[in-house]
Structures are given as structure tokens and as C-alpha cells.
Amino acid sequence: QVQPVESGGGWVQPGGSLRLSCEVPESIFRIYSMGWYRQGPGKQRELVAEIGTDHTPYYGAFVKRRFSIYRDMDKNTVYLQMNSLKAEDTAVYLCHAGEIYWGRGTQVTVSS
User: What pLDDT, on a 0 to 100 scale, did the predictor assign at position 26?
Assistant: First the structure.
């Protein structure tokens, strides 16, 4: 079974940056939108960002221009660049392809 491969999570201080990556096979990458959800402690899962096959991005309302999602067509990888991170961004971030294929999640912790 295909599972997106995520990387890039970790710990960062408030105001810092992280870049998450998510790789899938080319056959999936080229036909599905891809994106990230997150689930913080005691919170419901929420959409962070998505990007269509035409590279059109969509962001959750809380992002407020802090994050940027983009595709690398040569690497079959989608990236989520996260800047100006806040403590409330602490969560497990899950990558998906077409909301059909899901990664295992990568932990992002923002604290001082």
C-alpha cells in the first residue's frame, strides 16, 4: 500500500521556521492534489494547506501568510514552508495525496 513519506518535523522556538516534505510515487503525485492536515493535543484535525495539480494553493484561515506550500515536479515532493511559528502550531502534521493516501505524520513542536 502506498504511503506518503514525510520528513522535516522537529522542535523550534517561537518565531522560527521549519520545512516539511512529503514524497509519493510519480503516478500519484501527478494526478492528485496534495496537502497537509494537523492535529494538536486535545484538538480536532484541521486543514493546513493544499495544492492542486495545477499548483493552485489553498490555506487554512489560521495560516495568515506564514506558510507556503509548493510542488517539486522533479522530486514528486510537496513542501510546506512554515515561518513565524507559534506555540499553537504544535501538532502532528499529516500529509495526504487526494485525501486517499495518508502519511504517518511528523511531529512539530514550537516552544521556548
Answer: 96
What's the Rg (C-alpha) of the chain?
A: 13
- DSSP states of the chain as a string? ----EEE--EEE-TT--EEEEEE--HHHHTTS-EEEEEE-TTS--EEEEEE-TT--EEE-TTTTTSEEEEEETTTTEEEEEE-S--GGG-EEEEEEETTTEE---EEEEE--
**Of the candidates 43, 45, 47, 91, which has an alpha carbon nearest to the alpha carbon of residue 69?**
47
Gap between the Cα atoms of 16 and 42, Å rounded: 23
CA distance 23 to 51: 14
Nearest Cα neighbor of 69 from 84, 91, 86, 52 is 52
> How do residues 10-68 score in pLDDT, each as one tens digit?
999 999 999 999 999 999 999 999 999 999 999 999 999 999 999 999 999 999 899 99
